[in-house]
Design a protein that fits this description.
Length: 443
């Protein structure tokens, strides 16, 4: 095309006719063949095609110039169109490359990360309607096919094949393939969302089943901690503390008022050694050892009042039921100790003139280092206890004997032994207790 334009321009510049340039007239119907010339070669080597004439005369110079300008504009438009198509191909190829190299859920590039993640979901649940890896493989093949087609079209453009027909064909093919790819992508995304929903539903159902099972287990544990509530009477039960730990204990719901005297009686059975531990402790703010009964290590049983100590002549670590009572009065700090209805010891000067402070916490089976807590497993009581009662006065010796030999029933007027006043924690349990007469046979 450029050679033809050069020949036309040269002919116009020289003012020669076709007849003069050829030296003879061209025969009718003859054909001319032009060969391409370098830009700096003379145009005389390429014969010019005949220019149509009107009425046998050559076209005017203005008509030839208009023809040349029209041809030049057509060439420029064709170049611009081809450039736009090349830019479109490069843009689509870049988008495909970014799509293939996009990171999956596990951080890996391309479809491998998504295939691995969906593969794990399949292995975990085991009941999805189809294998998610097939979805990813099919999507990968479609994307690769589109990339190959685009690369073939770009190669054709570079090879200068069918310039006139290529732009429209390329545009239609790209639109068709992109439409198919968009439809496939939307379809696969919908399938993946459905599978994600299935996984979520299965996880929610599993969580609900787990929570239901845990709730049933907690209810059963609570029942075991409380023991049987079908006692013949509210006071015919015992608290069992089978292990020497710092988390098994019972707690009295009621607290003590201010006391100037008291009597504490209870039945207990323990075979732990050395020492039975702490059958009960009462702590108030500022004084963890307000009232404590403890046998720790190789020491004898001790009664603590306001952190003052009196050693009691009691011996109960033989694995049998024993009934013990201790009395105390603030007047001169007098105290008495009874075992199985018999007074075994007495003394004085145990925290004299000190009233027992109110509002504390009364714990069965543990010694408190702070109010209601900081238990020490080495000081824990191991065994069973029952009929823990507290009075706000010093009981007579005959009353204590009658209670011990089961001839009278005297619940404490401050702390009575009733089921709804005792809570157990950490695996401690409440069970029906043997009758008082059966406990006497155990002595």
């Amino acid at each position: 095309m450029l050679a033809l334009l050069a020949g036309l321009l040269f002919s116009l510049a020289s003012g020669a006719s076709w007849r003069g340039a050829r030296g003879q007239e061209s025969p009718p119907g003859s054909r001319f063949v032009c060969t391409s010339l370098p830009p700096d070669a003379a145009p005389s080597g390429c014969p010019m095609p005949p220019i149509p004439m009107q009425g046998g005369a050559l076209p005017s110079e203005e008509e030839l110039k208009a023809t040349v300008l029209q041809l030049r504009e057509t060439i420029l438009q064709q170049k611009e169109t081809l450039g736009n198509q090349r830019e479109t191909i490069r843009e689509l190829t870049g988008k495909l490359s970014r799509c293939e190299s996009a990171p999956g859920p596990d951080g890996k590039s391309g479809t491998a990360g998504w295939r691995k993640e969906l593969g794990k979901g399949k292995d975990t649940m085991g009941d999805l309607p189809r294998d998610p890896t097939q979805v990813i493989d099919q999507l990968s093949r479609t994307m690769q096919s589109l990339k190959d087609r685009l690369e073939n079209l770009e190669h054709q453009l570079r090879a200068n094949v069918s310039y006139a027909a290529l732009p429209n064909e390329l545009r239609e093919m790209l639109q068709r393939r992109l439409g198919e790819l968009e439809h496939q992508l939307l379809s696969k995304v919908a399938e993946l969302e459905d599978e994600k929903s299935l996984l979520h539903n299965e996880t929610s159902a599993h969580r609900q089943r787990t929570e239901t099972a845990l709730s049933a287990l907690l209810e059963r544990v609570s029942e075991l901690e409380k023991g049987s509530s079908a006692f013949k009477s509210p006071d015919e039960f015992k608290v069992s503390l089978p292990l020497r730990t710092n988390y098994l204990y019972g707690k009295i719901k009621k607290t003590l008022p201010e006391l100037y005297a008291f009597t504490v009686c209870l039945w207990l059975r323990s075979s732990a050694s050395p020492g039975i531990g702490t059958p009960f402790s009462y702590a108030v703010p500022g004084q963890a050892n307000e009232i404590v009964l403890i046998e720790w290590g190789n020491n004898p049983i001790e009664l603590l009042i306001n952190d003052k100590v009196a050693q009691l002549p009691l011996f109960i670590s033989d694995g049998k039921w024993h009934h013990i009572c201790v009395t105390w009065t603030t007047r001169d700090g007098m105290w008495e100790a009874f075992q199985d209805g018999e007074k075994l010891g007495t003394g004085e000067n145990l925290a004299p003139w000190h009233p027992i402070k109110p509002g504390g916490i009364l714990i069965l089976g543990q010694e408190q280092d702070t109010v209601g807590g900081r238990f020490d497993a080495t000081q824990a009581f191991v065994g069973e206890m029952s009929q823990f009662n507290i009075w706000d006065r010093v009981l007579k010796a005959e009353d204590i004997t009658n209670i011990a030999n089961c001839s009278t029933n005297m619940p404490g007027n401050i702390i009575p032994w009733v089921d709804n006043n005792v809570d157990v924690f950490g695996g401690a349990t409440k069970w029906p207790v043997e009758t008082c007469e059966e406990r006497l046979l155990d002595l």
